[in-house]
Amino acid sequence: MARTISLLVIALVIALLAALNWTTLATPTLVSLGVTSVTAPLGLLMLGLTVVLAIFFVAYVLALQGSVLMENRRHNREMQTQRDLADKAEASRLAEMRAFLDAQLQQQALDARVARDGLLARIDRLEKAVELRLEQSDNSTAAYLGQIEDRLGRTGPL
User: Fold this and answer.
1) Which residue windows are transmembrane per the record (predicted)?
2) How does pLDDT run across 112-151, given as a tens digit for each residue?
3) Residue 27: CB partners within 8 Å, gap ≥ 6?
4) Where does the chain show beta strands of DSSP type E?
5) How many domains does the chain divide into?
6) Which residues contact 42 (CB under 8 A, 6 or more apart)?
7) How far is CA 19 from CA 8, 12, 46, 73, in A?
8) Domain ranges, residue 14
9) pTM for the full predicted model
10) Interval 24-50: pLDDT, tens
C-alpha cells in the first residue's frame, strides 16, 4: 500500500512538473541520435520515453502478478489433490481399523461363548457328580441304618 502511494505521488509530481514547464519541454532543440541529428523537443522525447518505460514496467508487473496467480492456483490444486489423497488414506485406515476391531470383538464374543459353554458343561458335570455323591451318601446312610436296625432287631429291645 505504501509503495502504491509512493508511486502515485511520484507520477503526480512528474505530471505537475511537465504541466508547469510545458513551454520549456516543447521547445525544439538539436537532438543527436548517434547516427544523425534532428530538431525535436527534447523534453517531450524524455517525457515520452518515461511514459513508455512506465507502461513497460506496469505490463511487467501485471505479467509477473499473473504468473504468480497461476502458480498459486496450480499449487492450490495440488494441495487439494494431496488433501483428498490424505483423506482417502485416512478413511481407508479407519475402515481397516474398524474391520480389525469388529473381527477382534467377534473373536472375543466367540471366546466368551466357548468359555461360558465350557463353564456350564463343567457345572453340569459337577452337579451330576454331586447328585451321584449325594445318592451314594443316601444309599450308604440307608445301608448303615439298615444294618443298625438289623442288629437291633436281632439283639432285641433294650
Assistant:
1) 42-64
2) 999 999 999 999 999 999 999 999 999 999 999 988 888 8
3) 41, 43
4) 28-32, 37-41
5) 1
6) 29, 31
7) 16, 10, 14, 44
8) 1-154
9) 0.51
10) 888 998 888 889 889 999 888 898 999
